[in-house]
Amino acid sequence: MTSTTATVHKAKKHDSGIKHVSGRARYIDDVPEPAGTLHVVPGLAAIASGQIKSIDLDPVKQAPGVIAVLTVDHIRGVNDTSPGGIGDDPVFAEKTVTFHGQALFAVVATNRLAARKAARLAKVVYEADEAPIVSVADARKVGSEMLETYQFLRGEPVEAIKNAPHRLKSDMKIGGQEHFYLEGQIAMAIPGEDGDMTVLSSTQHPTEVQHVVAHVLHVPQHAVTVETRRMGGGFGGKESQASQWAAISALAAQVTGKACKLRLDRDDDMIMTGKRHDFEVSFEAGFEENGRLTAVDTDLASRCGHSADLSLGVNDRAMFHSDNAYFYPDVRIKSHRLRTNTVSATAFRGFGGPQGVLFAERMMDEIAIETGLDPLDVRKANFYGHDSRNVTPFGMVIEDNIIDDLVTQLEKSSHYRHRRTEIDAFNQTSRFLKKGIALTPVKFGIAFTLNHLNQAGALVHVYTDGSVYLTHAGTEMGQGLYIKVAQVVAEEFGIGLDQVKIGATVTDKVPNTGPTAASSGSDLNGMAAKVAADQIKARMRAFMAERFQAQPDDVVFAENMVSVGDGSMKFSDLAQEMNLERISLSASGFYRTPKVSWNRDEIKGRPFFYFAYGAACSEVQIDTMTGEMKVTAVDILHDVGKSLNPAVDIGQIEGGFVQGMGWLTTEELVWDEKGRLRTHAPSTYKIPCASDVPEHFVTNLYDSSGNQEDTIYRSKAVGEPPLMLGISVFSAVYHAIASIKPGAKPQLDAPATPEAILSAIASLEPS
Description:
Layout: H1 17-22, E1 38-44, E2 50-56, H2 58-61, E3 66-70, E4 96-97, E5 103-109, H3 112-119, E6 123-128, H4 136-142, E7 145-154, H5 157-162, E8 166-174, E9 186-191, E10 197-201, H6 206-217, E11 224-228, H7 243-256, E12 260-263, H8 266-272, E13 279-287, E14 293-305, H9 311-320, E15 330-339, H10 353-371, H11 375-382, H12 403-413, H13 416-429, E16 433-446, E17 455-462, E18 468-472, H14 481-493, E19 500-502, E20 505-506, H15 521-547, E21 556-558, E22 561-564, E23 567-570, H16 571-580, E24 586-592, E25 597-599, E26 604-606, E27 610-623, E28 629-638, H17 646-665, E29 696-701, H18 727-738, H19 754-762
Parallel strand pairs: 1-12, 10-11, 14-15, 18-19, 28-29
Antiparallel strand pairs: 1-5, 2-4, 2-6, 3-5, 7-15, 8-13, 9-10, 9-12, 11-20, 13-14, 16-27, 17-18, 17-24, 21-22, 22-23, 25-26, 27-28
Helix pairs in contact: 6-7, 9-10, 10-11, 10-18, 14-15, 17-18
């Protein structure tokens, strides 16, 4: 990728890369503890649904090392940690338990082990409900709805399906996913004077944590400062659900007057924190002989858990992406949001989009079996067009469609057609081993569909030695946001990247921030930082123009020099001169995403600024006797516009693919009939490991002239879209199973574990 820029569009190492691999990156648990720091551990409910008849905490209070036991009685403000103050997610359950593992109290002790031991000594008597509502099926049976049903409707899909040349009716289950961030949920609260509280929080949304802590402690927001230097992974699990642990640690600090730290044990973390929403999907489709759809009618039912959390937005986005890259002439997409006695499902990379895309891809695979066509030909027949067939089910016109060109390029570079022919020949002669291949596209909308979140701020200081300090609204969770925004600032000032210091995200420097989510971190914060830098540059230009009798627009910033006409100065010298002349070298920048506007009630507007595109071709092999599956080859082509940092972007693409592959193949969440999560440790919950990544793993960036929208240096978002590339693995598994009985459609649910694969194979046999 050629570029005339000096720093952006260049592959630069992650700013914390060396610290990561050397173990010197400081996370909250590495921060030196103030003298006398106390440790906090929550006490968990032992049932999933019922009333608390009595609770005896005396044995807890009398345990060695215990300083205090916190209950709802210690809360001066509101007993709620829900995002946006919804009011349905208590810090501590008071009278009613709504999921197994819900926090009832918290122990504050001199050390963590003492607190953990003491938390188990509580004597709680419950009046349990007969049977908790655990699954989607349970919730639908009793009509347990979390939020109102919502739908997109265009045309007359029921009638169109009835009159279609060919019809299809099917269903599938889509499992959830544990975030499994390397750094678990953690917070440390340090009390100050006048009731002030500083909270170090591993969160994607420092402002949300600030709001929740202030409400729980009953103090103004200015009294709470939240700092996040880095997270050891987030993936959405720390967007809304970091707040409870920060609030409990701050409550402990308020009660004891000491610094207090809460770090969840891994098992407790998995039990007490939310997952990706699991879905049950049913659908009907009408289509023509060539596989082109005439109408689609689908129902998406999701398990939301015990509280609303972010389920409204997640389920809406599942609907927004149920078309993926395909045009549905007549369409109904209906969403059911169900309440269950399980931990609240929450944000997870893709935010509902992956579940919608997976439905669309299953539909394409089943149409291919019905018609006898290659699934890729069915997909291409249904792609969005440019001048027609280019309006989504929610009314947004696709203006930047490159999916056909991108898929065609990958089809050729991956040798899809040749490999498909070879695989079909292999499957005809191999009795027990079967291969599969699939090439699937991704179209993913970029922006928050909640309009007010599409904003960010940044603060830039230039010091008199020419060094620059930068902080902004975005949080760093390993995705490379900090280095990208630093590249933007270095590029704007024409200085070396080593001259830019990236500060932690702190609420007292950049206020009222949105979360780092929706893949918008670079778009929002890169632009906000550029706005701040431009303000300082404008002052520098005016100074240089006056000094050298030139026009401000002619001033050039490059190679650590600032030049105009025959005059030039070192950037550092210019900063020193301006300081002597009492000209400000500091600025705050603010950016809000243009064009986006979504009226949910009227189902009208433009929810996304633009779309990111990609495609993956995956090949797998399954053992029909054991259900074991291995991914043998992956080819990816992904659109990032003009990449701010190709090295970081390729890392995000590869990591996202593997995480998506894990969701659909090995990562299975299991709750028992009592609502207890049984897969709450690495011993029972299997994320992909290095050996699951095939030796043939080729990732390329689509050769783009740049985002047609005015984004930061014409780049595109990269965080979430690549996860859906992993759907190609699931479709390849489907192809391998379907080869056993040509013309029959296997019932394969996600994740495609060995058990699910064997079940799908069995579904091909007559009952």
